[in-house]
Design goal:
Helices cover 27% and strands 26% of the residues. The protein is of the alpha+beta class and 1281 residues long. The chain has 7 domains: 215 residues, Rossmann fold, CATH 3.40.50; 82 residues, no CATH class; 104 residues, no CATH class; 141 residues, Immunoglobulins (Immunoglobulin-like, Sandwich); 111 residues, no CATH class; 165 residues, no CATH class; 125 residues, Immunoglobulin-like. Strands 2-3-1-4-5-7-6 form a 7-stranded mixed β-sheet. Strands 38, 40, 41, 43, 45, 46 and 47 form a 7-stranded mixed β-sheet that branches. Strands 12, 14, 16, 18, 19 and 20 form a 6-stranded mixed β-sheet that branches. The protein is rod-shaped. The protein starts with 29 loop residues before the first strand and ends with a strand. It comes from Drosophila rubida. This is Protein brunelleschi.
């Protein structure tokens, strides 16, 4: 057709000035009404009226045949005048009604509103059927007498003749209100429209009914026009033209056959449009079919496309009535799947459902069902005249079924495609083509045909339209919205981003960065991005290059908007989500950009809320710096809480249960897999070590680094660190728990590159880190500081638990020296008292020796508790340098003036002038000291030819007796820990304490040394003879009795006789042999030494001296009481006895048992000998002395306190000086039996522990061999007659 028609180029091309992107197929059946606000903008006040008017979008009308029609209306706010020129082509484009709404305060404003209304009527007068004006006036004054009325309404109709609606009933309802408004306000004389007046605060309860009446009037006008069109004769119809076609038919013969068919076909299509708007769907379908056939026969492509589009619209009205109430653009979730093939469910208000074989469609609405069920015949006009242009039956419709000539759902898409192809043949129909594609798209969305949707939308891009930039942006936004409805998110994002770039494209005079930012932000979903960076990292989907480019564009838009906070947030988002997808160079460049952006507004980990309510979640630089490891540190060892050990109460015989709740144990273990084994203390500084690495090629400053926690209140301390490139660095983060309970450590916060970030462990990917750490916080414990009165040591202890040592003390003592150390404890807590304190000493020496070396007054210590906050406590540790003073060393090696031996001690015999019952001296055994608590066996050597005092010969084991060795006593180093357990406050109630320690380092220097010892008898005492060496470098004063001192030069030795009182034999038998020396030391012997010229003094211990049985006899009181008479004269000690040669002398011996036990197996022996006073004694006196009677008798038992007497006669043959040795010896029968029974042999004359312990049940004479002598010997001088 266009090839045969010569177009005439007008000055202005008749094209539509604006696309209606909101149109859908169902709008073909709607009457178009302009709803416009006039006067000053008062959106809040007039919004209620607009909503009420828009609610009335359809009316029910009963025609003359009794069929109820539903007439739909479409309210618009803008309508270009030139669109009315297309009203013949498609009647739904013609504006039929006008409603204006305005607010006035005075008469002048009312006149202005009326003028605006009239100007709109004139503007659209060519197509306008009816108009109404709704005016809101000022509220009534409080003094008005009609204040109790709900509303005041005034109806003004200056065109009384044209009024088609009677409103008198309203005026009679409120006569006072009508009169009042008419008196106050009147419309101008040139105002020819009908107006409704309401008060500003009026509820407008009748507004909807008035709008319904107005719409009803529009319908009847439309119905009259339809009837007029239907009555036209086919021969007399005029040619209907599209605006641009007027130039094509100039000068053509309109009476030709083809042109007459064209005229009829176009009029038939126009009548079909009117029938569709009037609610006659069956007639409209038939007319569209007929018009389509007629127009196709003459090749009228433009109108063929219009008829095909009309067929699709009429069919869609029947098949998809739900599109009127629920536009698909409000439910984009419906088409998330691109391959959706689900059928659309039938609405609840639908009576029937029609299902297509190829696609699903909605059921027919109740409107169609009612219309078809009300009458079995198609709806006819109310006019009785016959129209030559009628709806010839193209198909038939049975009651309750769809029209037979309705398009199937799959046919609708095909007809739309044909219509678009026909429109595409006309350049001036580009707008019609575009709108048809949009309508087809929405129908395909309803039919769930995503591929057809994409096809129609893609076709829109190729339509050549003269659009402004704003309209191009609008087109992209609509395409984006439709793609989103079918789930094509990436395509939607592509066009949305195009729209964003169009807003700010180069050369634009007024770039709209706000809209550009909004659109780019909305395109995130299509690029598989989310505003929440955590979701992006979790999904790890999409196209990194596109995502990075989009984020950079978004940052640019935010910067151009002046939103520095948003720009910083998006740059942080980019670094956090795309860090792994960028090269090292890109990472460095992005980090520098972020640093520059944050210089204007630093980033913070809080959500940002845009003006439209969109929330931008926080973004955190979790991997900048990169966390390699996070370790929760325990408190310092001396501050760690410990359980106070409490003695368990007896719980009976049931000590454990064999039942194991394995499932419960596993559940608890799984629940607390992140639980830290140790405890933190309230108000104590705690530490977490974080290992970080800087992935950037330049130094990275991290400031205000703190721990992130949950649960109990936790005060974190800031930390600043500068990280070198690619070098792991350990950073210690500290904080203080303020409350008790469970602390949840979730990560740390940083401030780097100008951005504050919350780096949580659960968000750190690619590392074997738990999501959090759980630490139990116990109540606060007091803290103490410890000081000592002694100087500190350079090194601490090497003992166990050396890590709890908080201070040290060193002390150097001579062996036997005593000292003290004052410990000062200060309670450093400001609120907690020190209520519990335990002091224990641990050392590297044995427990018994430790008790002797250290001593603390526990009672005095506990009396000072509790210690108030900031208070102090002092106690003293008494220290004694316990050592072994007995060292095995030959006496000949000492630098002494006298040789040690029998001759050297002979002068002590003259001291023995005690009581006659004192026992004789027995030589001491050889001794070797093995250790501090064990002794080797001793051996006693007794010789009848020796002196009663024998020398000690002590030699080290394995040493040659001929070698000369100096006495040695090594310096000892003793380490000890004074451990303090303390607690107070609520922690004490909970059973927790702390433990710290003081390291004590003692150096024990040799002082004196006992190299040998012996026991000598005396009258009432005995002498403990010691060889003592001074091992110090100074002169020493030795005090061995209360008033006897001796000076010993440095490194010299001397022999010291110490008088000691004897003890009873029962006391000796009741003690162990090894304790005899200790008893001597503690009760009788005290050896004190003092370094002259100093105040250094000490006590020498005799621990380690072992006494033989003979020595023990000398240390004890004899159990026998001697009573001897010679020639009937009692013998006194040192008395002079004279006898005559050849005369018999009577010797009487009387023994009394003074012990508490009987004495058994006693042997009394009497011997005479001569002492040459040169160490030689002669016992062979058979030719010089004769004894009449036995000189040896046996006494089986001598009971307690019993006496026995022995008498004999002595005859001396030669004169001279004779001595008499009288002794009583016990036979050790029991000792021999014990030795045989046990299979063990003991040295003769020594006392063992096992032997002495048996004396509690048997007599001592059955256990050991004892010798008691009458001392001094009786000296008899024999003279001649």
């Amino acid at each position: 057709m266009r090839a045969t028609v010569q177009p005439h180029a007008p000055s202005v091309e008749p094209v539509m000035s604006r696309l209606d992107y909101e149109q859908n197929a169902l709008h073909h059946s709607c009457l178009l009404v302009l709803l416009r606000g006039v006067g000053p903008s008062r959106a809040r006040i007039l919004q209620r009226a607009f909503e009420k008017v828009r609610r009335v979008n359809n009316i029910k009308v009963t025609d003359s045949s009794g069929i109820v029609r539903t007439i739909y209306f479409r309210f618009i706010h803008e309508h270009p005048v030139e669109h009315n020129d297309w009203g013949d082509f498609q009647t739904h484009r013609r504006l039929l009604g006008l409603i204006t709404i305005g607010k006035f305060e005075n008469q002048t404003e009312l006149n202005e509103l009326c003028r605006h209304h009239e100007s709109l009527k004139v503007r659209y007068g060519g197509t306008l059927y009816e108009s109404r004006a709704i005016f809101f006036g000022p509220d009534a004054q409080p003094s008005d007498s009609i204040g109790n009325h709900k509303d005041g309404i005034t109806t003004v109709d200056n065109a009384q003749a044209d009024a088609s609606i009677d409103l008198g009933h309203k005026e009679t309802q409120h006569p006072l209100a009508a009169g009042r408004l008419q008196d106050e306000f009147t419309t101008p004389s040139n105002f020819k429209s009908q107006a409704f007046f309401y008060r500003e605060q009026d509820n407008c309860i009748d507004l909807e009914s008035r709008v319904s009446d107005f719409l009803n009037a529009l319908f009847w006008v439309l119905e009259s026009r339809r009837l007029e069109r239907s009555r036209e004769k086919a021969e007399k119809v005029s040619l209907l033209l599209a605006p641009f076609e007027k130039r094509d038919f100039v000068g053509l013969d309109m009476e030709s056959r083809n042109n007459r068919k064209r005229c009829v076909g176009r009029v038939m299509k126009n009548l079909a449009d009117l029938s569709l708007q009037a609610g006659l769907l069956d007639d409209a379908l038939s007319l569209y079919h007929n018009a389509n056939e007629t127009l196709r026969s003459v090749g009228d492509s433009l109108w063929v496309g219009a008829s095909e589009e009309g067929l699709c619209a009429a069919s869609a009205v029947i098949l998809y009535p739900q599109m009127r109430t629920s536009p698909l653009r409000n439910t984009p979730e419906k088409w998330r799947a691109s391959d959706a093939t689900k059928k659309i469910n039938t609405p609840a208000n639908c009576a029937d459902a029609i299902t297509s074989n190829s696609s699903s469609c909605s059921s027919v609405s109740s409107l169609l069902t009612n219309n078809s069920s009300a009458s079995g015949t198609p709806t006819t006009s109310s006019s009785s005249s016959t129209s030559t242009i009628s709806a010839a039956p193209f198909g038939h419709q049975r009651n309750g079924e769809l029209p037979g000539n309705i398009l199937k759902p799959e046919e609708i898409t095909n007809y739309y495609r044909k219509a678009i192809i026909n429109y595409s043949k006309y350049r001036h129909a580009a707008t019609i083509e575009t709108e048809a594609a949009l309508k087809a798209t929405r129908i395909c969305i309803e039919q769930n045909r995503p591929l057809d949707v994409a096809m129609f939308l893609q076709n829109i891009l190729y339509i050549n339209l003269s659009l402004s930039e704003a309209e191009r942006v609008k087109r992209f936004e609509i395409i984006t919205e439709l793609y989103q409805q079918i789930g094509y998110q990436r395509k939607a994002a592509f066009f949305q981003r195009l729209a964003a770039l169009k807003h700010v494209q180069q050369g634009s005079q007024a770039p709209d960065w706000t809209q550009s930012y909004r659109l780019m932000l909305g395109s995130f979903t299509g690029y598989l991005l989310s505003l929440d960076p955590l979701e992006v990292l979790e999904n790890a989907a999409g196209w990194p290059a596109l995502q990075i480019d989009l984020a950079q564009n978004l940052i640019t838009a935010a910067r151009r908007l002046g939103q520095s906070a948003l720009a910083t947030r998006h740059m942080t988002f980019l670094l956090q989500t795309q860090w792994d997808n960028m090269t090292a160079t890109e990472q460095s460049e992005m980090a520098v950009q972020l640093q520059n952006l944050s210089a204007q507004c630093e980033g913070s980990p809080v959500p940002l809320v845009l003006e439209n309510g969109t929330v931008i979640p926080p973004a955190n630089l979790t991997d900048l710096p990169y966390c390699l490891e996070m370790v929760v540190k325990d408190l310092p060892t001396h501050l760690r809480p410990q359980r106070i050990k409490i003695a368990k109460a007896d719980s009976g015989p049931f000590l454990f249960t064999p039942i194991h709740f394995n499932s419960v144990d596993r559940r608890d273990k799984k629940k607390d897999k992140n639980k830290i084994a140790f405890l933190w203390v309230q108000n104590d500084l705690s530490e977490v070590c974080v290992r970080l690495r800087n992935p950037l090629p330049f130094e990275l400053a991290v400031t205000d680094m703190r721990l992130l926690s949950n649960g109990v209140v936790f005060e974190s301390l800031p930390q600043t660190v500068i990280l070198q490139p690619h070098v792991p660095t350990n950073v210690s983060l500290h904080g203080t728990p303020i409350e008790t309970g469970q602390l949840d450590l979730q990560g740390y916060s940083t401030h780097t590159l100008g951005v504050k970030s919350n780096c949580r462990l659960k968000h750190m990917r690619g590392r074997h880190l738990p999501p959090n750490y759980l630490v139990d916080v116990i109540p606060a414990l007091p803290r103490i500081s410890v000081k000592t009165s002694l100087p500190q040591t350079a090194t601490f202890s090497n003992m166990n638990k050396a890590d709890i040592v908080v201070t040290s003390a060193s002390l150097t003592l001579y062996n036997g020296e005593s000292s003290s150390c004052t410990i000062t404890i200060k309670n450093e807590s400001s609120t907690l008292p020190l209520e519990h304190l335990e002091v224990n000493i641990n050392s590297n020496v044995e427990q018994e020796l430790q008790k002797k070396m250290f001593r603390i007054d526990e009672q005095a210590l506990q009396a000072q508790l509790p210690v108030a906050p900031q208070g102090m406590l002092e106690f003293v540790v008494y220290i004694y340098a316990e050592a072994d003073f007995v060292c095995p060393m030959p006496a000949g090696s000492l630098n002494s003036s006298a040789d040690y031996g029998p001759s050297s001690m002979s002068h002590y015999a003259s001291v023995s002038s005690g009581h006659a019952s004192l026992p004789a001296g027995i030589s001491s055994p050889q001794h070797r000291r093995q250790d501090s608590m064990q002794h080797a066996a001793s051996r006693s050597t007794i010789s009848a030819a020796q002196h009663s005092l024998a020398a000690l010969s002590l030699q080290p084991g394995g040493a040659d007796t001929s070698s000369s060795l100096r006495p040695q006593q090594l310096t000892q180093h003793i380490e000890a820990q004074l451990r303090l357990k303390y607690s107070g406050g609520e922690a004490l109630v909970a059973g927790y304490c702390r433990q710290c320690a003081v390291s004590l380092n003692l150096e024990l220097i040799p002082s004196v040394q006992i190299t040998s010892w012996d026991v000598l008898p005396a009258e009432m005492q005995f002498y403990l003879v010691l060889d003592i060496s001074n091992l110090t470098a100074q002169e020493m004063s030795l005090n061995y009795t209360d008033n006897k001192n001796i000076l010993i030069e440095a490194k010299e030795s001397c022999r010291v006789p110490i008088p000691v009182d004897r003890c009873s034999l029962e006391q000796v038998c009741a003690a162990r042999a090894a304790e005899v020396a200790e008893n001597l030391e503690r009760e009788r012997v005290k050896i004190n030494w003092l370094l002259t010229g100093t105040d250094i003094q000490g006590v020498a211990s005799l621990r380690g001296i072992v006494l033989s049985h003979g020595m023990v006899d000398l240390t004890t009181v004899s159990p026998l009481e001697w009573s001897i008479s010679f020639q009937d004269a009692p013998v006194q000690p040192h008395s002079e006895i004279v006898a005559t040669v050849g005369q018999r002398a009577q010797l009487s011996i009387n023994l009394t048992n003074q012990s508490l036990q009987p004495l058994k197996n006693l042997v009394l022996t009497i011997k005479f000998y001569q002492d040459y006073l040169n160490g030689m004694e002669n016992y062979n006196l058979e030719t010089r002395v004769a004894i009449s009677g036995p000189n040896r008798i046996t006494i089986p038992v001598l009971e307690k306190h019993a006496q026995t007497q022995h008498n004999c006669s002595v005859i001396f043959f030669t004169p001279g000086r004779f001595k008499t040795s009288i002794e009583c010896v016990t036979k050790p029968q029991s000792h021999q039996r014990n030795s045989i029974s046990t299979g063990r042999s003991y040295p003769a004359g020594s006392t063992t522990t096992s032997q002495l312990e048996t004396t509690s049940t048997s007599s001592f004479d059955e256990q050991q061999a004892h010798t008691w002598k009458f001392i001094p010997p009786i000296e008899v001088t024999v003279v001649e007659q």
